[in-house]
Amino acid sequence: MSVINITENIKRVRDSIGEAAVLSGRTPEDITLVAVTKTKPVGDIRQAIDAGVDAIGENRVQEMQEKHKMNAYEGAPLHFIGHLQSNKASKVVGVCDLIESISSKTLLELIGRKAASLGICQDVLIEVNVGREPQKSGVLPEQVDELLAFASQIKGVNVLGLMAIPPFFTENDRNCYYFDIMFKLFVDMSAKKYDNVSVRLLSMGMSDSYVDAIRAGSNMVRIGSALFGER
Asked: Is the pTM value of this prediction over 0.85?
């Protein structure tokens, strides 16, 4: 069995991120690398943080809570990137620096209420189901503006941008089709003037698609297997 060298993998991914950023008219520093650590042990997370990833992303609330008790995330911002159920929303508020997967008015209200009780403002992203896939969470592209307007009325919530998990195709041009739709939506929503809303983050692109996503305009990528190996 080959040994996964997380530090070398991060350097390799960083190099690819830098090349894609330059091709899109930006710098490597403009792109946030979120290491996805679902099922990964604390030791791997600590190594990734020591190697300089920008943030850690977790998909499951219970797993995140267990690792948090072991100080797994110390030294890096923590993002919640998985589907968030309403009955678990309060468990991530104030623990995660950014919740990337907001997909309803109900979640916004629950998060805002919990954040207000803690005396904080919780940063979030709106998840967009850009591929209109019934098995995935997220609002449809045409519903984003309405949700942003609603979020502007919720105390304790600060919307920083959009997140998407587009359909994946082996043909690059088909992937880029959805990335381009998301980037146009991102630009349109960036021009909106709402309280508590500053659309400046576009989180899209994973291990098999992050280069195309960055070239299309993403400034935040969520990468797991390219750093840690297959689960």
From this structure: yes
Helix axes of 172-190 and 144-151: crossing angle, nearest 10 degrees? 40
CB distance 186 to 161 below 8 Å = yes
Q: CATH number of 6-228: 3.40.50.10400, 3.40.50.1010, 3.55.40.10, 3.20.20.10?
A: 3.20.20.10
The predicted structure's pLDDT at residue 171: 64
Q: Which amino acid is at 150?
A: F
What's the pLDDT tens digit per position in 93-117? 999 999 999 999 999 999 999 999 9
Among residues 55, 44, 52, the alpha carbon closest in space to that of 14 is found at 52
Other beta carbons within 10 angstroms of residue 55's beta carbon come to 22
Per residue in 188-222, pLDDT (tens digit) is 999 999 999 999 999 999 999 999 999 999 999 99
Give dist(CA 169, CA 196) in Å, integer. Answer: 35
Q: Which long-range contacts (CB under 8 A, 24 or more apart) does 60-68 make?
A: 61/85, 61/88, 61/91, 61/92, 63/38, 63/39, 64/92, 64/95, 64/96, 65/91, 65/95, 67/37, 67/42, 68/95
Where residue 3 falls among pLDDT bands split at 50, 70, 90? low
* Strand 98-102 with 78-80, pairing: parallel
User: Within a 10 A sphere around the Cβ of 158, how many other Cβ atoms?
Assistant: 18
Q: Could you identify the residue written with the tokens 């300089």?
A: 52
Pairing of strands 157-164, 122-128: parallel
